Recover the amino acids of this structure.
């Protein structure tokens, strides 16, 4: 939809904080099975915030130069970051019971936490659902039409404003889900949003803006390179990621899977 | 950015010169009028003004929004710190020389890559490149000190003629303040000449209409690269001046959020005007020091200010003031 949201990482953090506070603190005494179903709460919270933000703060900027979007969402990033601090305080929140509850198993010599399987399954499910949603439903069709040519879609009777809100809300939902699903494994801390933003930004640049397959492949590349980097060249692990992103932008400005604009 | 035109009628009138001299004189007597703390705060503001002025050559005049200028500020700061650590240099002039060289090299590298793109791609590519430097400063702790940063002692000025006294605060608030002030004025003058030269006009032509500029015969990419180099060196100089004042350089100043702050300064002052980034930087500096003291949630408050600014006052302080003055003048003459 050509929205660049610098505050996206903070919605990821919001998802993490909501889930962590629900599962880890407020309802910690409940039965674990029930708690697993509460994990997506963070995603819904992020989606709700997204649904409010798009019409109020982002919509006025579609007509103006793209750079203003960067500025507004940068301001938003600062606000959300401190909003999280205001609500949940400066200390990390964890929901590790869900992580330890599932235990771990061994593959050969390596110990692997069972919870990570759940994370992988959720990731695959989310990707499949998102793909089906965008390429196999009527709403997805409208979404793609609007992204390609907003004015023509509008002239053909598409409620463009609604499509924008929905698309943005889905985007925020996915960010929140990402945050919510990692929180049993690692605690929710301030600043995680900015870190996630920078990583997901590299992912999108490598994969190509506006391409789902690209985002998926980019995420795999970044994930694998990070893991290799941490063991093989820990000092320049992050630098290598940024250099990959810069290199991809140089060779294929539209990213690996993007269509040239 | 191409929708807002910078007034081209600005020329060097007697009135402008008179105002500039008046303001320079006012800045020169500040150490006597203000306390030491306030003077040092003002010095910070002037230094950020140099950085914002550099950024604005790209943002306001060339139409390129860089979200990675912390790279040059940080290059300046780390160039000084590393010169202290490995070469045991103490002279501020050598620092500045080294900084100009270092930031020129970095700007050449980054600029060669990034001026091929415009708009969001340019912004984000710069962000990514600046993050490379940040992660290097962050991870190579045996060179850069990691998150602890590097300490920088007070330098000697004017080839050792003015040395650091025992009273560091007094030195910073007087001798060093004037040093910063002189460089600030020099930078403003140089930038003024650049912006009003044929080269500066060519940049504005590129900003307003790339295709037409190309037809006129302007070599767009080369012009953008030169603008990028000048911009980077200005910001680098600001970084070098900042280090002795702060006494320490940490990877924070290479992080992209600091780039955002420099952009904030330009928007606050009004990037469509020559004086916008200068006023924006000084005001932002006071604003931040006040907000940080007033509340723990200073970041959020600054965010609110930025959002309100972009939504309601896109021409910044200078633009709004100008409009108000025009309005009152119109009212009195009518």
């Amino acid at each position: 939809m050509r929205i660049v949201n610098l505050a996206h990482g903070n919605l990821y953090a919001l998802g993490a904080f909501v889930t962590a506070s629900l599962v880890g603190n407020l309802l910690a005494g409940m039965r674990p099975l029930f708690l697993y179903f509460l994990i997506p709460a963070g995603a819904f919270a992020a989606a709700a915030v997204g649904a409010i933000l798009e019409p109020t703060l982002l919509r006025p900027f579609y007509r103006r130069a793209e750079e203003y979007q960067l500025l507004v969402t940068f301001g938003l990033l600062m606000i959300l970051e401190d909003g999280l601090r205001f609500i949940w305080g400066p200390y990390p929140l964890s929901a590790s019971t869900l992580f330890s509850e599932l235990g771990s198993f061994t593959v050969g010599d390596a110990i692997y936490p069972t919870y990570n399987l759940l994370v992988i399954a959720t990731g695959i499910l989310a990707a499949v659902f998102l793909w089906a949603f965008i390429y196999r439903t009527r709403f997805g069709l409208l979404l793609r039409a609007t992204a390609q040519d907003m004015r023509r879609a509008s002239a053909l009777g598409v409620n463009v404003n609604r499509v924008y809100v929905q698309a943005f809300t889905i985007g925020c939902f996915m960010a929140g889900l990402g945050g919510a699903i990692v929180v049993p494994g690692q605690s929710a801390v301030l600043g995680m949003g900015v870190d996630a933003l920078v990583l997901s930004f590299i992912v999108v640049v490598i994969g190509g803006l506006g391409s789902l397959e690209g985002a998926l492949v980019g995420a795999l590349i970044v994930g694998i390179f990070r893991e290799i980097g941490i063991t093989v060249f820990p000092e320049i692990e992050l630098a290598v990621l940024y250099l990959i992103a810069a290199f991809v932008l140089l060779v294929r400005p539209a990213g690996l899977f993007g269509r040239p604009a | 950015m191409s929708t807002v035109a910078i007034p081209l009628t600005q020329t060097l009138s007697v009135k402008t010169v008179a105002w500039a001299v008046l303001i320079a004189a006012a800045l020169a007597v500040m150490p006597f009028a203000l306390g030491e703390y306030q003077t040092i705060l003002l010095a910070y503001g002037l230094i950020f003004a140099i950085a914002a002025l550099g950024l604005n050559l790209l943002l306001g005049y060339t139409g390129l929004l860089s979200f990675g200028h912390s790279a040059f500020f940080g290059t300046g700061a780390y160039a000084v710190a590393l010169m202290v650590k490995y070469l045991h240099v103490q002279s501020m002039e050598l620092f500045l020389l080294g900084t100009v060289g270092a930031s020129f090299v970095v700007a050449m590298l980054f600029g060669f890559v990034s001026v091929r793109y415009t708009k969001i791609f340019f912004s984000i590519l710069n962000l990514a490149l600046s993050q490379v430097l940040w992660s290097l400063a962050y991870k190579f702790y045996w060179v850069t000190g990691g998150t602890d940063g590097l300490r920088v002692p007070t330098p000697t000025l004017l080839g050792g003629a003015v040395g650091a006294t025992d009273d560091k605060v007094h030195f910073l608030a007087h001798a060093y303040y004037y040093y910063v002030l002189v460089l600030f004025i020099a930078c403003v003058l140089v930038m003024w000449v650049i912006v009003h030269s044929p080269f500066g006009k060519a940049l504005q032509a590129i900003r307003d209409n790339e295709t037409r500029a190309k037809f006129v015969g302007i070599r767009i990419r080369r012009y953008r690269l030169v603008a990028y180099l000048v911009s980077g060196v200005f910001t680098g100089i600001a970084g070098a001046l900042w280090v002795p004042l702060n006494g320490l350089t940490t990877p924070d100043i290479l992080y992209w959020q600091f780039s955002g702050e420099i952009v904030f300064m330009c928007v606050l002052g009004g990037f469509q005007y020559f004086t916008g980034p200068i006023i924006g930087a000084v005001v932002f500096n006071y604003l931040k020091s006040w907000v940080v003291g007033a509340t723990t949630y200073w970041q959020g408050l600054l965010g609110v200010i930025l959002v309100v600014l972009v939504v309601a006052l896109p021409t910044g302080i200078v633009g709004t003031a100008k409009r108000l003055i025009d309005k009152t003048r119109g009212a009195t003459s009518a």
